[in-house]
């Protein structure tokens, strides 16, 4: 294993990335939900609705939502009938915002919060029916380890779903998308969240993330079967899923 990894377009020591990512999300946590709306022009809401529908967690299922952040996916899953949802995130500040939102929405019952690294999930093997991860895998140092952990904690017959920025497949839109990502987003981040650098990193991290076929192959190597993906918004994001049999 190499001793370095990517942090956006920079190369950093592997041991440093987790703390650097944590600092990014400590910084953006207070304005995270507002910035999501601005960054995606509101599309993230439709993407997350499609994602939760794909997860398909029912009343008898426990869903482990990795990189749960401020709780969007978890809250939608509860509203759609998930039995129990465990919100796990490496960033305590994000989870604190999520806990406050859960109380305001009256959704605290059936939720559990765990501050942990997705590469080392503190749950027994075969303990959940569904695992989800929305917009978090690209920030992890060892993405293969995260997928292996997702596979480990699933019961046989369980499914893992990953929603992540992916490879835009509409060539004509790529120049506009690049301008939005590298010029507009950092400017908005600087104005709204007083932190242009974090949003520059987030834009760069999207470009460094594996494309659709590569991520599908990573899931298969982790043990998942019947792996497939669904592009949304022309491939700006994609939902990948795989089963544990």
In short:
The protein has 245 residues and is an alpha/beta fold.
Nearest-integer average pLDDT: 92
Residue share in helix: 40-55%
What fraction strand?
A: 15-25%
Q: Unreliable stretches, pLDDT < 50, 5 or more residues?
A: none
Radius of gyration computed on alpha carbons = 17 Å
The best one-word shape is: globular
Widest sheet, order of strands:
5-4-3-6-7-9-8
Explain what this protein looks like in three dimensions.
One of its GO terms (molecular function) is methyltransferase activity. Belongs to the class I-like SAM-binding methyltransferase superfamily. MenG/UbiE family. It is an enzyme of class 2 (transferase). The protein has 245 residues and is of the alpha/beta class. 46% of the residues lie in helices and 24% in strands. The chain contains 9 helices and 9 strands. The chain has helices at 14-28, 32-40, 43-55, 72-79, 92-105, 143-153, 174-192, 196-208, 212-221; strands at 4-7, 10-13, 62-66, 84-89, 111-115, 128-134, 154-165, 225-232, 237-243. The strands form 2 sheets. Strands 5-4-3-6-7-9-8 form a 7-stranded mixed β-sheet, sandwiched between helices. A two-stranded antiparallel ribbon has the order 1-2. A hairpin with a 2-residue loop joins β1 (4-7) and β2 (10-13). α3 (43-55) crosses α4 (72-79). It is globular and about 45 Å long. The model has no long low-confidence stretch (mean pLDDT 92).
